């Protein structure tokens, strides 16, 4: 393997949504640096951070039937049975909700938690309170998807946070999507909620770190899995 190959494999790809922001940061850095060298180095650091924020690393996704994988990098912040948002049209019966909080240091590319057809995309304007709070699911700006297949119908909701001001969704109603496929992105801190069928037992714990497209949230074909016992080590 050549040195060029080694370097290319070490570099993490950047999502195209980040190119305009990287360009703006780079140009601003050059302009500020023309007036004061200290500002150049500060701008260079911030440009590097913007590149880091929009990273889009490849993921190895499990494809076993019944598995629901995490749609986002981040930390499990909420778990419990709640009535899903009205705009999803999932009914008024409680469903198992698993919330994943993304800090500004997490990768913000969102991935499909299961294979299926996107039967609904519903955007709702709202506030920008801290995404870790429970009320963020009801009050904040959000974009919801319904994914269906022969075995299940689940909801996935992108929620803007205190810093996030832009939700991007790449898919439309009627499209087919495979587990692990990229379906959206939220800029600068946010949350993803996954609504699972009633009776589903998540195989994660509060505070657990998730990797989008890789970490397993639940197994819909193993309803007797029971509660997860975990510890911090």
From TrEMBL:
It is found in: Cell membrane. The keyword Lyase applies. The active site is at residue 190. InterPro entries: PS_Dcarbxylase, PSD-A. Binds 1 pyruvoyl group covalently per subunit. Is synthesized initially as an inactive proenzyme. Formation of the active enzyme involves a self-maturation process in which the active site pyruvoyl group is generated from an internal serine residue via an autocatalytic post-translational modification. Two non-identical subunits are generated from the proenzyme in this reaction, and the pyruvate is formed at the N-terminus of the alpha chain, which is derived from the carboxyl end of the proenzyme. Its EC number is 4.1.1.65. It is a peripheral membrane protein. Pathway: Phospholipid metabolism; phosphatidylethanolamine biosynthesis; phosphatidylethanolamine from CDP-diacylglycerol: step 2/2. The chain crosses the membrane at residues 21-54. Keywords: Cell membrane, Decarboxylase, Lipid biosynthesis, Lipid metabolism, Lyase, Membrane, Phospholipid biosynthesis, Phospholipid metabolism, Pyruvate, Transmembrane, Transmembrane helix, Zymogen. The modification Pyruvic acid (Ser) is found at residue 190. It comes from the Bacteria. Pfam families: PS_Dcarbxylase (PF02666). It is an enzyme of class 4 (lyase). Catalyzes the formation of phosphatidylethanolamine (PtdEtn) from phosphatidylserine (PtdSer). PANTHER family: ARCHAETIDYLSERINE DECARBOXYLASE PROENZYME-RELATED. Heterodimer of a large membrane-associated beta subunit and a small pyruvoyl-containing alpha subunit. Belongs to the phosphatidylserine decarboxylase family. PSD-A subfamily. This is Phosphatidylserine decarboxylase proenzyme.
């Amino acid at each position: 393997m050549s040195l060029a190959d080694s370097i290319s494999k070490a570099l993490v790809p950047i999502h195209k949504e980040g190119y305009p922001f990287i360009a703006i940061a780079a140009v601003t850095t050059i302009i500020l640096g023309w007036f004061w060298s200290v500002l150049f180095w500060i701008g260079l650091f911030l440009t590097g951070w913007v590149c880091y924020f929009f990273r889009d690393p490849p993921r190895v996704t499990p494809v076993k039937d019944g598995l629901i994988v995490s749609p986002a990098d981040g930390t499990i912040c909420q778990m419990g049975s709640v009535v899903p948002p009205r705009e999803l049209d999932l009914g008024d019966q409680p469903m198992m909700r698993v919330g994943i909080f993304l800090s500004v240091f997490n990768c913000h590319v969102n991935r499909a938690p299961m294979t299926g057809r996107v039967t609904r995309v519903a955007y709702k304007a709202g506030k920008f309170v801290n995404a870790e709070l429970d009320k963020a699911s009801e009050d904040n700006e959000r974009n919801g998807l319904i994914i269906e297949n022969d075995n299940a119908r689940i909801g996935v909701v992108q929620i803007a946070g205190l810093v996030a001001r832009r939700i991007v969704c790449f898919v439309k109603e009627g499209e087919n999507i495979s587990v692990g496929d990229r379906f959206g992105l939220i800029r600068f801190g946010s949350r993803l909620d996954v609504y699972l069928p009633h009776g589903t037992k998540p195989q994660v714990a509060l505070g657990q770190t998730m990797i989008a497209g890789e970490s397993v949230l639940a197994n819909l074909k193993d309803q007797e899995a029971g509660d997860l016992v975990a510890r911090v080590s």
